[in-house]
Amino acid sequence: MQKVHRIVLVDVIDPHLHKDEAIKNLEELKSLVATYHGIDIVDVIQHRTRPDKATFIGSGKVEELAEIVAGKKIEIVVVNAIVNPSVLFNLTEKLWIINPDIQVWDRVDLILNIFDKHAQTLEAKLQIEIARMQHMGPRIYGLGTTYFSRQAGGIGGRGIGETNIELMKRHWRDQIKKKRDQLEKISMQHMTQLERRKENNIQGISIVGYTNAGKTSLFNHLTKKKKIVENALFVTLDSVTGKLYLPTLKKEVTISDTIGFIKDLPSSLINSFKSTLMESIHADILLHVIDISDPKMDEKIGIVEKILEELKVKAKRIIYVFNKIDAFKGDGKKKLSEISNKYGHYDPQFISVTTDYGINKLKEEIEKSLDRTA
Ligand SMILES: Nc1nc2c(ncn2[C@@H]2O[C@H](COP(=O)(O)OP(=O)(O)OP(=O)(O)O)[C@@H](O)[C@H]2O)c(=O)[nH]1
Ligand SMILES: [Mg+2]
């Protein structure tokens, strides 16, 4: 049995927002916590126009948080934002007295820790280590600055503290460079493979989309592979390529499944995953898989579109694949017309991997697209 972590979620919300709405906003963070095998014991939500500069929540709320940490044996505090490293440090300092092992994370820390648990290949592991080092670096220098300036103050000079921080930074940079060089070698192998396929005129399709949309389910269905599918976030971290035979075109193409996207991914994290995402960046066609039963569908489409733009994908065509239509509840006609208005130029397809609905039509659409882009 995996250890279950006792977690408190901390959020600051607009004073005008209703409590129910605030809780809804925390839903994705709660799914992330569950994926990490955590139990969200309590939520500490504060209404204020903007987060406190030093501790995210105000000092009264910090007291409340400290009592919860003590009373409920909390191990991890997760702040629902990406915050300045000093904020996490200040909060940790206030909670240390209660639990010397307390960890205070932001959203990115939580995501990185999930990645860490799910990573299987050397490539994924290296990418996570680099992302983690980049994310943690400033926090450690921050800690160093506080620590060393106190120390230096005590012995009457600033020089020692600064030199030590410089040394630490240099060591950190060297470590990151070593990992980058290792990753570069793996990326080069990918690139060579891709180029070989191009030379042999083998076209490539790549499945992308928000996490938990059903990408791996679709990939398994099309390739008859058995990659892990789970109702959790970031189940897939690596890129896997399979083959798809297209009967009308009488040819085989490659199809790849990869890591899902989520909101608030810092660019540095996306950049570290470029090696895994290489198949998607260079694919001829992208299948953007979307969970049509998700109330936040439009927002999530927007987030994926933005990340694809950041990645500078070269695909000649993007097909929007609306999955899970079996689970859609509501006015279907209205939804269809909204989709065709908003996303009509992406040849929307409607499928359910679970019931097999629309899969043949999707394959025909893929054939048409490939025929045009060949
Ligand atoms: N109702 C319904 N559920 C589906 C359908 N397709 C996939 N799912 C479920 O959606 C969940 C996520 O599926 P995955 O295929 O793992 O999703 P993913 O996009 O690969 O997720 P990550 O790799 O974690 O980003 C699983 O519980 C699937 O069983 C569908 O057509 N209908
Ligand atoms: Mg997956």
UniProtKB/TrEMBL annotation:
It is found in: Cytoplasm. GO terms for cellular component: cytoplasm. Residues 203-374 form the Hflx-type G domain. It comes from the Bacteria. Its main location: cytoplasm. Keywords: Cytoplasm, GTP-binding, Magnesium, Metal-binding, Nucleotide-binding. The keyword Nucleotide-binding applies. Its cofactor is Mg(2+). Mg(2+) binds at T216, T236. GTP binds at residues 209-216, 234-238, 257-260, 323-326, 352-354. Pfam families: GTP-bdg_M, GTP-bdg_N, MMR_HSR1. Belongs to the TRAFAC class OBG-HflX-like GTPase superfamily. HflX GTPase family. GTPase that associates with the 50S ribosomal subunit and may have a role during protein synthesis or ribosome biogenesis. Monomer. Associates with the 50S ribosomal subunit. NCBIfam families: GTP_HflX (TIGR03156). This is GTPase HflX. It comes from Candidatus Roizmanbacteria bacterium RIFCSPLOWO2_01_FULL_35_13. The lineage of its organism: Bacteria, Candidatus Roizmaniibacteriota. The gene is hflX.
